[in-house]
């Protein structure tokens, strides 16, 4: 099976219609046991815009047709259909067309915008079974609806691309305009048996057969009658205590808008539903773990805070307060992760809170202002903890070594950049303090303290980035602050 679209220029209204068609036309390929190719006019010829191969039969066109100009043996066929807006069937009279190829117009506002060719596998032709007859007739009905721009319906794409969507091979039921079963494929019959329907279904009303098997007391989806009567293109799950079936209806409508039949696709999604429930349970468990880790870390932080108040040594008290700040930073990360299970996390709220909290803790009784500019944006969750710790350490160092006794201002600047010739952007994070009066332009040399070691280890090992410290030029007050610059590659 293959279906995609090419990249040449197509008007937006045509592209939307063709995308809707190619999202749905796998059903025709499977019902007709044929390959489909969508040809779009370009210059004086046609170019293959999309291709679909049947899952139910061997492919007729093993080569990839995407982007190929129409071969000479079908160009006349394509031009006729495009000009007359009328299909040319396999059994029609068209001597210059290849055997086993029919062509159907894709119309828009009484104008043909593209042509679909249907390629039969003549090598495997044999006496058709009842299943093949029903399938091919259903494919023909859909092709006629397509050429009359009745199908696909605008609301059908959502049900065709959703998780666990039924396919032709999973089970097909054809019903008439009154909802009576005219044919059920072997796989559909098997699905009915799992549901508890043992008797023959031909001539029976599909909606009544199914609803009789539902468990009493369980609410019935309001879409279920609509789907099982084939009145609307929609999908519904039929759920009992033992099995979950996904049912999707495709009304078959004539040119006058009258529904003369419908196709109902059935798929046993019991295992899919069970796995979904397991994933939901695992997600909830992971969130609960993050929540409990956050609570435990907050308890540790509280114990460190209590211990620091009892310390007689000022240096020991400061060491405990710094340890408390690091624990709080990690706790804040787990609090954020407990509220989402997405692969990426919006870091702005987390890191802005972390930066502000770190400055307040380090400032103690001094008045330290914070300025934040730029956005971290969405980043992978595994970057949250190391980045939060780095921001915490840089903010703490900036307050301790880059502000006056009367207070000051600490800035956090963030932006995404990309060097010329490099495939991935990088995140640039700067923490800037006001420093002390100095006339030196020499770079600041950071010591080997614990905070600096933590920063270097986290940036280089966990974030796979780089960090540098630069002394800023003195301003008109003679103040020359320090700028810590982190560059983190965003190719995680």
TrEMBL record:
<protein>
    <recommendedName>
        <fullName>histidine kinase</fullName>
        <ecNumber>2.7.13.3</ecNumber>
    </recommendedName>
</protein>
<dbReference type="Pfam" id="PF07568">
    <property type="entry name" value="HisKA_2"/>
</dbReference>
<keyword id="KW-0418">Kinase</keyword>
<keyword id="KW-0547">Nucleotide-binding</keyword>
<keyword id="KW-0808">Transferase</keyword>
<feature type="domain" description="Histidine kinase">
    <location>
        <begin position="288"/>
        <end position="492"/>
    </location>
</feature>
<keyword id="KW-0067">ATP-binding</keyword>
<dbReference type="InterPro" id="IPR003594">
    <property type="entry name" value="HATPase_dom"/>
</dbReference>
<dbReference type="InterPro" id="IPR035965">
    <property type="entry name" value="PAS-like_dom_sf"/>
</dbReference>
<dbReference type="InterPro" id="IPR022066">
    <property type="entry name" value="PdtaS_GAF"/>
</dbReference>
<dbReference type="GO" id="GO:0016301">
    <property type="term" value="F:kinase activity"/>
</dbReference>
<dbReference type="InterPro" id="IPR036890">
    <property type="entry name" value="HATPase_C_sf"/>
</dbReference>
<dbReference type="InterPro" id="IPR005467">
    <property type="entry name" value="His_kinase_dom"/>
</dbReference>
<keyword id="KW-0597">Phosphoprotein</keyword>
<dbReference type="InterPro" id="IPR038424">
    <property type="entry name" value="H_kinase_PdtaS_GAF_sf"/>
</dbReference>
<dbReference type="Pfam" id="PF02518">
    <property type="entry name" value="HATPase_c"/>
</dbReference>
<dbReference type="InterPro" id="IPR011495">
    <property type="entry name" value="Sig_transdc_His_kin_sub2_dim/P"/>
</dbReference>
<dbReference type="Pfam" id="PF12282">
    <property type="entry name" value="GAF_PdtaS"/>
</dbReference>
């Amino acid at each position: 099976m293959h279906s995609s679209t090419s990249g040449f220029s197509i008007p937006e209204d045509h592209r939307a219609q063709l995308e809707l068609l190619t999202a749905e036309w796998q059903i025709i390929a499977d019902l007709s046991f044929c390959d489909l190719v969508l040809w779009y006019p370009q210059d004086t010829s046609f170019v293959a815009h999309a291709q679909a191969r049947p899952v139910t039969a061997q492919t007729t066109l093993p080569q990839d047709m995407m982007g190929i100009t129409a071969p000479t043996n079908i160009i006349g066929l394509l031009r006729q259909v495009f000009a007359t807006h009328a299909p040319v069937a396999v059994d029609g009279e068209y001597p210059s067309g290849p055997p086993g190829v029919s062509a159907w117009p894709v119309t828009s506002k009484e104008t043909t915008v593209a042509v679909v060719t249907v390629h039969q596998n003549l090598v495997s032709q044999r006496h058709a079974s009842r299943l093949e007859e029903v399938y091919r007739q259903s494919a023909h009905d859909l092709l006629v609806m397509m050429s009359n721009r009745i199908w696909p319906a605008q609301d059908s794409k959502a049900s065709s691309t959703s998780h666990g969507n039924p396919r032709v091979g999973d089970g097909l039921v054809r019903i008439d305009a009154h909802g009576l079963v005219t044919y059920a494929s072997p796989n559909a019959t098997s699905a009915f048996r799992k549901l508890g329907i043992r008797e023959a279904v031909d001539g029976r009303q599909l909606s009544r057969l199914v609803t009789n098997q539902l468990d009493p007391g369980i609410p019935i989806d309001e879409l279920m009658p609509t789907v099982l009567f084939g009145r609307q293109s929609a999908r519904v799950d039929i759920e009992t205590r033992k099995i979950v079936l996904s049912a999707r209806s495709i009304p078959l409508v004539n040119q006058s808008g009258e529904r003369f039949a419908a196709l109902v696709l059935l798929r046993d999604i019991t295992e899919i539903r069970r796995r979904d429930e397991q994933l939901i349970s695992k997600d909830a468990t992971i969130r609960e773990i993050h929540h409990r880790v956050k609570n435990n870390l907050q308890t540790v932080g509280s114990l460190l805070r209590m211990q620091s108040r009892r310390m007689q040594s000022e240096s020991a008290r400061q060491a405990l307060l710094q340890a408390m700040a690091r624990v709080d930073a990690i706790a804040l990360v787990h609090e954020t992760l407990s509220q989402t299970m997405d692969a990426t996390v919006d870091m702005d709220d987390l890191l802005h809170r972390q930066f502000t909290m770190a400055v307040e803790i380090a400032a103690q009784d001094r008045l330290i202002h914070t300025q934040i500019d730029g956005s971290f944006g969405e980043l992978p969750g595994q970057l949250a903890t190391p980045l939060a710790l780095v921001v915490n350490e840089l903010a703490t160092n900036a307050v301790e070594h880059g502000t006056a006794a009367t207070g000051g201002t600490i800035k956090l600047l963030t932006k995404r950049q990309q060097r010329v010739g490099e495939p991935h952007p990088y995140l640039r994070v700067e923490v800037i303090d006001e420093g002390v009066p100095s006339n030196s332009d020499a770079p600041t040399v950071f010591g080997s303290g614990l905070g600096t070691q933590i920063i270097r280890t986290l940036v280089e090992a966990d974030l796979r980035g780089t960090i540098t410290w630069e002394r800023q030029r003195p301003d008109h007050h003679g103040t020359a602050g320090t700028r810590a610059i982190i560059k983190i590659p965003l190719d995680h």
